[in-house]
Amino acid sequence: KCTTDDLHTAMISACVDKETEEHLIMAGKLFIGKVYKEAFGGAENIPTVKDMYHKMVADGLWTPLDYTDEELDKMQTIIKHRRDETASYSETKQICDKYAIFDRVDKIFKETPQFVYMRMAMQLSEHRFKKSRMKDVEKFYNYFSMKKINPPSPNLINLGTPKKQYASCCVITTDDTAASL
User: Fold this and answer.
1) CA–CA dist 92, 38 (Å, integer)
2) Which uninterrupted H or E stretch holds 89?
3) What is the Cα–Cα distance from 89 to 84, expressed in whole angstroms?
4) Burial class, 84, CB count within 10 angstroms (exposed 0-12 / middle 13-18 / buried 19+)
5) Do residues 108 and 102 touch, judged by C-beta distance below 8 A?
6) Model-level pTM greater than 0.70?
């Protein structure tokens, strides 16, 4: 009565329990494989950016953006799903559990980390000059997916979706002290 999902989950747990960097990277690979299976039926079935965009817009999960199919095809040459396989378990789990679109009824992931980063890049670049905005999409996508920019949680969750809740906490340094207040 042990399912392949049970075995997959047990392998992830065994790797996490080892607490070494190598094991956490392996756990991340195993976890993202599970996400791909839930979201798309496996890594071999990852949709193109164009197909993902049209499906997510039709499902009301992504905002319709002003991109042509040719531009969406260009984005397909930009996205690098293999980057998901180099992240540690904790990083991949956090992005998937906190920021990726997730169907809470059927308990399946609708996005992978790379699609989260692409969704954000698309939204941020939509109103840029059409002549150069694909370079902006690529630049933002690479900054996010290569962890050169750490976007705030509201942007990870909401950019490119119908939700528009961008309030976030921040730290501001001033010359005040507890005594001066």
Assistant:
1) 15
2) helix 89-94
3) 10
4) buried
5) yes
6) yes
